[in-house]
Amino acid sequence: MNRTIIKITLGALGASAMAGCAVGPRNATGGEVTGVGGVYLSEPAPRGMVLIDRGSIKAGPQEDDSLWNVRADARGVSVDAFWMDETEVTNSEYKQFVYWVRDSIIRERLADPAYGGNDEFRIEEDRDGNPITPRLNWSKPIPWRNTDEDEQRAINSLYRTNPVTGVTELDPEQLNYRYETYNHGEAVRRRNRLNPARRNYNTDLPVSDEVPQITKDTAYVDDDGTIVRRTITRGLTGDYDFINTYIVNVYPDTTVWVNDFDNGMNDTYVRMYFSNAGYNDYPVVGVSWEQANAFANWRTDFLRRALGREGVHIEPFRLPTEAEWEYAARAGISSNKYPWDGDLPFTEDKGCFYANFKPQDGNYTQDGQLITSQVATYAPNAFGLYDMAGNVSEWTSTAYTESVSRLQGDMNPEYRYDAAQTDPYRLKRKIVRGGSWKDVAHNIRSDLRLWEYQNEQRSYIGFRCVRTYIGFDKARKSKRKK
CA end-to-end span of the chain, whole Å? Predict the structure, then answer.
């Protein structure tokens, strides 16, 4: 009797619990397992991005080239679907980031007493001595009611007057962006679990109580206004140990036009390329790998804020992996050395119709351009992507080492190395792809890799963002027999 009562009680509890679920089984009749339904977010197409469907390719050069010291290094790789910017990030788009950082600093200074703001509060008490709702001390200026002079003082603090030209311009040294990232890849590794019994499932081995050591990046601004970056190692205490903090100066290095080319008259580009609206639709340059990552983080946060509660479901913007970049550039066709279809005879004359590069020694203008060109000047590849060869080389997220091909897997391959501040400089190399306006035809091939140091800024390196695709269309639904 008791046994029967228990069975009935559990059955009733199960039915009640199931009835209270917002998402239940597709069909709960007949006592069969039918699975649990649910709702997933079907992403709308992000502005200015192209959906690259999942696929595979023979990545890397497939034949030796003794003239250029290229060895065949083809390997099969597969990548999942992702969104990719159809063009490089432009000066106009990057300016939005710079101005957002500028405006954020101004808003903070409007509440700073040094710039006329005041955020002091007066706590009032009732007859029994209990604090009541705090009210502002109206005898002093409040942050959102600064005088015009105070506001102008806060704004002017971010500008400087050029001592030579007399032009008022932004002070690049102050435009620092602070952000945090969660290293999910390290956080989910078994070796970093707080429960020692779950770090190794081999029951022949004793459970070790040794505390895992984690490494994280942190940054702060000292009393002199200097950005201090450190990589610290300590015992694991919780998930927060996998949060890395970065402070990055976001203003591009406009002097690259002079520093990249000795004995040249390129001062005009220093003054005009980023600041003049005539170059708004040109790819941003003078941006380091670190700055490109900061832009991607800001772009993610900017979108999530606009979407409100739904924003938490959005995958972050990021730099493409080397495999993603090459797959997209070659339009998924292993025989393509360049972004266009087939192994086209790529001579200097014919190539000028396909990309912005350096056709001949000393002749930059045969393709109609001298330096960079407006984005989307040339025809896109079969995936709808512009300038995947030439114009500017592009940062990827992948770290460079001479053996990087052997270190990567074949499914969504990626080799990441977050170099510590104390690491040798050679460990801070990142892969760039696609060649640029200053490169000859060979160097803009889609199957070749080059590299640059992650903190370097060049007149010929830009970037574009990607975002992992989350969603299913009709073509991707399960084809299991029902």
Answer: 41
Q: Are strands 429-433 and 227-235 parallel, antiparallel or unpaired?
A: unpaired
CB atoms within 10 A of CB 248: 22
Q: Is the pLDDT of residue 6 over 70?
A: no
Determine the Cα–Cα distance for residues 225 and 361; give it in Å rounded to an integer: 46
Question: Which residues have C-beta within 8 Å of that of residue 377, sequence separation ≥ 6?
Answer: 356, 369, 386, 387, 391
Is residue 244 within 8 A of residue 297, CB to CB? The reply is no
Tokens of 287: 């941006």
Which of 424, 433, 427 has the alpha carbon at shortest distance from 451?
A: 433
Joined tokens for residue 239: 């998930």
Strands 393-399 and 461-462: parallel
Residue with tokens 């203003």: 251
Mean pLDDT of 202-216: 91
Within 222-261, strands assigned E span 227-235, 243-249
Produce one character per residue of 263-273: b if its CB has 16 or more CB atoms within 10 Å, e if not. eeebeebbeeb
Backbone angles phi, psi at 21, to 5 degrees: -75, 140
| Residue 16 reports pLDDT greater than 60 | no
The DSSP call for residue 318 is B
Assign 14 a pLDDT band (cuts: 50, 70, 90).
very low
Backbone angles phi, psi at 443, to 5 degrees: -80, -5
Q: Which two tokens stand for residue 232?
A: 């610290």
What phi and psi, each to the nearest 5 degrees, are found at residue 115? -115, 15
DSSP 283: B
Cα–Cα distance for residue pair 434/450, rounded to 1 Å: 9
Q: What is the DSSP letter of 13?
A: H
Q: Which DSSP symbol is given to 255?
A: T
Q: Are strands 393-399 and 213-221 parallel, antiparallel or unpaired?
A: unpaired
Using a pLDDT cut of 90, give the percent of the chain over it: 55
- Looking at mean pLDDT, say which of 3-12, 45-54, 365-374 comes out highest: 45-54
pTM: 0.85
- pLDDT reported for residue 123: 43
Q: Where residue 175 falls among pLDDT bands split at 50, 70, 90?
A: very high
Confidence band, pLDDT 50/70/90 cuts, at residue 330 = very high
Give the lowest-confidence range in 32-41, 54-63, 156-165, 414-423: 32-41
**How far is Cα 157 from Cα 163, in angstroms, rounded to an integer?**
16
Q: What is the DSSP string of 101-138?
A: HHHHHHHHHTT-GGGT----EE--B-TTS-B---EE-T
pLDDT of residue 309: 85
Please state the separation of Cα 177 from the chain's center in Å.
14
